[in-house]
């Protein structure tokens, strides 16, 4: 029997290619057309998406991207590329690594083609979402199936569903929080903010809120914090239907009235800093908290390309 060759496909959400209305419109059109993300019937959703949301939302979102854009481009893509390079160096030449995005570039199919062209016969798929959701990890599964649909020869596949409580991941988060506490002091409240999803998705079977809760509980236990020192919230809601609560922005607005004047915020669901952390949390929600009477606010950066984060990826790849 011929020897099997393992390859790693890392997948994140994606990002516009430039902080311009045109590029953002292309990205949002692809992202918001995925039924895993928005499952509204097409006859209702398409006129709203193309006639209202894309024309009006794209210029506004482009301005937000402009506020966080770097010399290396999109922070999410820059950090993801560094993660790809660091993991590749860690695993060595015998295990190729490729980065793909569910939306935008580099695409998931192009990353898959790169690996298969190198003779990969056993594919390890690592969605960069620590907590499973049908709207993120599920979309990676769909994208992989679509990319393989016309191939005669299929690789063996190990799909990492999530790593919400993996001990190496929790330890990396713990050290991130402790470093922030050492720098800024212990806050009155540590806010653990996750990206939200519609409540309906959870009632229909998505166990995402339970996976978020599992991460939060494991991190709190590792830090040895009392329940009153920590609060778990959900951010980035979109549309009119109810999303998971409590909402991060509303929570932060109400904390100063409770005597909570110093907070630090960590977003464990993001493998790389991006618009939702650097602009929404570090800028918008910081302003909300301070305007409401808060005095000290610190955002705890994502694990990004920190060596401990690469430890997490390596542990996941090498786990049998």
UniProtKB/TrEMBL annotation:
The lineage of its organism: Bacteria, Pseudomonadati, Pseudomonadota, Gammaproteobacteria, Enterobacterales. It catalyses: heme b + 2 H(+) = protoporphyrin IX + Fe(2+); Fe-coproporphyrin III + 2 H(+) = coproporphyrin III + Fe(2+). Its main location: cytoplasm. Keywords: Cytoplasm, Heme biosynthesis, Iron, Lyase, Metal-binding, Porphyrin biosynthesis. InterPro entries: Ferrochelatase, Ferrochelatase_AS, Ferrochelatase_C, Ferrochelatase_N. Its EC number is 4.98.1.1. It is an enzyme of class 4 (lyase). Belongs to the ferrochelatase family. It comes from the Bacteria. This is Ferrochelatase. The keyword Cytoplasm applies. The gene is hemH.
